[in-house]
Amino acid sequence: MSLQTYTLPDSLEQEINDLEERIARFKRGELSATELKVRRVPFGVYEQRKKDTYMVRIRCAGACVKPEQLERIAELSKTYGTEWIHLTSRQEIQLHYVLLENIVPVIRELKKVGLTSRGGGGNTIRNIMAQDDAGISNDEAFDVTPYAIALTSRMIAEPDSWNLPRKFKVNFSGSADDRGYATIADVGFIARLKDGQKGFKVYVAGGLGAKSQVSNLLFDFVPDAEVYNVTRAVRTVFFKYGNRKNKHAARLRFLWQTLGEEEFKRRFHEEYAAVQKENCPPLQIRDIENAGGDPQTPVEGAEDKKDFELWKKRFVRSQKQEGLFAFVLPIHLGHVPNDSVMQLARFLKPFGDNVIRMTMDQNFLIRNIPGKFLPNFYNFLKKTFDNFNRPYIIDKMLSCAGASTCQLGICLSPGATTATKRALEKCGLDLDALSDVKINISGCPNSCGQHHMADLGFFGKVVRKDDKVYPAYNVVAGAVVGDGKTRLAEKVGEVAARDIPKLVTDLFRLYLSKKDGYKNFQEYIQTEGKEDLKGICEKYKEIPDFEDDKNYYFDWDTDQLFSVAERGKGECSAGLFDLIENDFGNIQQARKLMEELAASGGSLSQKGRHLKDIVFYCSRLLLVARAAEPKSETETYNYFREYFINTGLVDIAFNELLTIAESGDTSGLLEREAQVYALVDRMRLLYDVMDSAFQFKLPEGEVKAPLKKVAMTAPSEASFSAHTCAAAGPASPSAGGPAVCSPHEADSPVLRANVVKDLRGVACPMNFVKTKMELARMKPKELLEVWLDDGPPIENVPGSVREEGHTILQQKRINGYWSVLIEKR
């Protein structure tokens, strides 16, 4: 049984090389931490609380991973990380505590087995999910896994997937039960059959976070061939109109709220029609066979028949394929030892590729196992995994990483989860009667622990009592998930972290005393359970004074008095605006140092150096909005002249400051201190009026082109990574560099470009960003000619330009590269 996972994009190797080069520059002190973060986070590499260590998040489309891939992941974790791997609630696998110098070796080794961490973080297309029992469940319309895999392959090959306003999540479900959470995704597909035709019900603009929202219905039915077109059209709407400046209002659901349903749908259908006109090929859907392997393995008898039967009752389910079974392998908090993972992978290999999925509650689902081999698996699990056969509710509880590793964590949610599990194991209640209950815990409001999707959920907060703070949680309950009926859990109270185990056991004890009157726990919560829970929260409302019981002022599993002083800044939204804010911070720091110099009577030469720093940061901070990547101080000033002074955005008088800064004689800045601060004010104004598409919305007539443009200083413009020239006439190529005007003058088309931009050597997606920026400066109907390399650049950039509404008039191959002629819309 061969399972084909997603296809890696051709551009991946170059992107890995680029990351490697930037890490090297960072270690040499040539690149700031913020500049590196902007590159590493979209690669799924996050800084952890332990200094100089990182987490690497691996994409596993449709929850799929092959045994040999899983084995290699565990080997890499053992070599470069910690003693365990982590399963996430979004069906990914994480390596933790990887050193900076080992990040690229890990990523290269993942590539060898067909995996990548690209898109594991940042403002990107994230892991595309599917319900874990897709292909084997009795109630599904059809198997959605091939669609999740094929859509992943297409999306991660397109430049627009890597520079979105915020993260973008796509989910697939096979039935109206919505076990893939399609109704809380940016784009959600629920499989349907209509007159024998495969298709999907489509939801958009939902998601979890500090401000969670249920998705909105977009289509009641679209044929399955439209999955790519629909996703791409939604992505284009998000790419064009999403809020890039305010990360707290940047997700697609906020765009829905801002535009309103009617306008959002109008813009979607406009983009959808444009995509359909391109006649893009549909996704390559490869059916996945769910059949039992026939390993040359002797059938065993269960070592403990009574316990074996209990295990089957708790965890084993029959598949729709006759004679085949699936079972949950519970993993405590998603942490599983490397050695156990390697043994599991090797044990599974004889049964084929299609034998394992990650579940949304951080467990493994083993599938396609012939019934006769279930005793073999039971015996193996008994030897390899601790606590593999305890009541399902124990290991079904879900928790995010919390403050133990996450920069944003407030509370130690894994500790609270573990304490609750211990309390349940000791409480004497019939825990098997609670196997359908979903308890989710998040360490902060951001819902990484999916507390809003729980029957009983908690999310961390800080509460003050007298002069002390202590860890606490908001309590939510009553989530409902299903096609057309999804509702988020509602807040019913709050509780100190120390009292969560007691609250949970009190509620379950009360429920079990009333259980006979209800179909399940969900029905109980929706009727009288919430009121019961409010009463229990009230019972634990007051906590002891610090002198009476210090335990309440310590979080679980720590001997440190509770504090949020070490809480860091989250990296999920790392992007271009982080670089801008970082340079504004540098300017503020330089001004502060000058104030300290004035107070202490410091030297004028020191003050001059700080003024030069301010001029440099002013020149650099908005270059990212023009896709310029200077590699030296001189290039920084030249780009600033080109994009800001020569365009009239900044007065030509400020060029004098740049000239003085370049000269190295900073004394000239001392008598121009007021002008330096005026430049700061101008750049702040430009930033404030810059929209999410990086355009400056100044009052009409405010920008005036200078009467005389300033000249560039050496090295010449030809050394820039991309070149622009007016196409009024031929120009000589610069020595050692590419020509800055068309080298095929005699072969030019009748339509002549107003501007030519050389993007040879510029990788995706930066080549598209530079194209977009150039078009933004042009007038409607003007023509832009861009020169692109073969491979991913020519395959991706023209399509992305079309998504923006522009027209591709001509694509022509010339001497090993491509000339693309674009008419601005």
Question: Which keywords apply here?
Answer:
alpha+beta, 5 domains, 24 strands, 825 residues, Sulfite Reductase Hemoprotein, domain 2, five-stranded antiparallel β-sheet, 23 helices, globular
What does this structure look like?
This protein has 825 residues and is of the alpha+beta class. It has five domains: 124-288, Sulfite Reductase Hemoprotein, domain 1; 305-394, Sulfite Reductase Hemoprotein, domain 2; 404-553, Sulfite Reductase Hemoprotein, domain 1, CATH 3.30.413.10; 576-689; 719-823, TusA-like domain (Translation Initiation Factor IF3, 2-Layer Sandwich), CATH 3.30.110.40. The protein has 23 helices and 24 strands. Strands 1-2-4-3-12 form a five-stranded antiparallel beta sheet. Helix 13 (413-426) links the parallel strand 15 (398-399) and strand 16 (439-442). Helix 17 packs parallel to helix 21 (673-689). The longest helix has 25 residues, at 576-600. The radius of gyration is 29 Å and the shape is globular. The model is unreliable at 716-749 (pLDDT under 50).
At the fold tier of CATH, the topology name of the largest domain is Sulfite Reductase Hemoprotein, domain 1
Radius of gyration: 29 Å
Largest sheet: 5 strands, antiparallel
Described by the principal axes of the CA atoms, the overall outline is: globular
Number of strands: 24
In DSSP terms (H or I, runs of 4 or more residues), the helix count works out at 23
Beta-strand content bin: 15-25%
Name of the top-level CATH class of the largest domain: Alpha Beta
Q: What's the CATH superfamily of the largest domain, by name?
A: Sulfite Reductase Hemoprotein, domain 1
Distance between the termini: 50 Å
Structural category: alpha+beta
As for the number of domains, it is 5
